[in-house]
Amino acid sequence: MRAPTILCVASAVDLDFRYGCTPAWWQLWKGLYEEGVDLVVAPYRGRPVDSPWWRTAPNPAYLEGESFARARDAVARLKGDRYLRREEHHPEDSLGDRMTREAIWRFVTPRWRRHLEQLVEHERPEAVIVFTVPMAHFRGIPTALRERFGIPVAYYDGDVPMSLPEYGGMDTGFNYYHGADPGEYDVVLSNSEGGLDRLLELGARRAESVFWAADPEFFSPQPVEKEVDVFFYGHSDKFRRDCLSSMIAQPSRELPDVDFALGGYDFRFDTGAARELGDVPFNAFARAISAARINLNVTRRPHATLYASSTCRPFELAAAGAAVVSNPVEGLERWFDAGSEMLVVHDGAEAVAAYRELLNDPAQAEDLGRRARERVLDEHTYRHRARRLLSLLDLQVGAHVD
Fold first, then answer.
1. pTM above 0.85, yes or no
2. 30 and which of 53, 148, 149, 228 could share a cystine (Cβ 3.0–4.6 Å)?
3. CATH topology for 228-380?
């Protein structure tokens, strides 16, 4: 049986851009390859990046994308910041946003349409999947591909609810759904089960959840010495300052003998007595997790409060065999058992108690991490997600590659 071909267009493939979804896309594409899929991946921003698991296609608007990014960075610097920031709730669709979309529709969208039509003509894929490219920027393209080639076109939004108009896609520079028509796609895939009704309200004809996961080969327990007592890694403190304060700042002051370490960047909250480590390269992330006695999962408020809105971190930490302490997340029980596979704390006092308990009983911490990893191996690898994705697209593969 011929391996099915899927043409993927991704927001970026280059990990240097620090897009939160990109490492997860790498793992999902690897999972699809292991399930027997022939992948062709084209980046919407940046250059294509080769790998053992997919073939590449060029970015036809590379110069335009990089020019726009440099302009945004320059404006942010003029304002004395690293990023142009949106309001956390109901950011306006500004005149600048609308002008940007008009320029994209005039100069970028037609180029991508021609490019994808040529790729589909050449590759004859069984499906096209768009991975977190701002949906409005591809307006008209799914309809054109379906009408000309008769193939399904799916959109995978990996950041619901943050990508929704009421949140504005964080500080990406684009509101994904303003000016877009989700109904152009055969199916809109989402990391969030609780967000499916909202996607249907926005016009999706069909919406299905495909949760985040982890590659258990990359995220595996590493043979390293424990160097940190309590470790958190994340990109910015937006939408989680309160939880970070109660899980890091307050406990780090109450437990002066406990070493707290904070990895990542763009933190504006009071970090208490925690050490700031800066960025951790992705290839060193599994080792950093294994070097900590306790790892924190601090999910942003929108994801934590909308039922079963998955994020990458709990799966990655669990796959690495970490003893995980998490803030409350609606729907966490869909993936892990609170108590036997992860601990959940609601305030600073509970956090302090949990840290003391696990640090005083390393065997309990080890058992917690072992059970969490077993759950990932049973249910939450990217091969599991790849199989669900293929099922939703009604694609059959040949023999599995083990």
1. yes
2. 53
3. Rossmann fold (3.40.50)
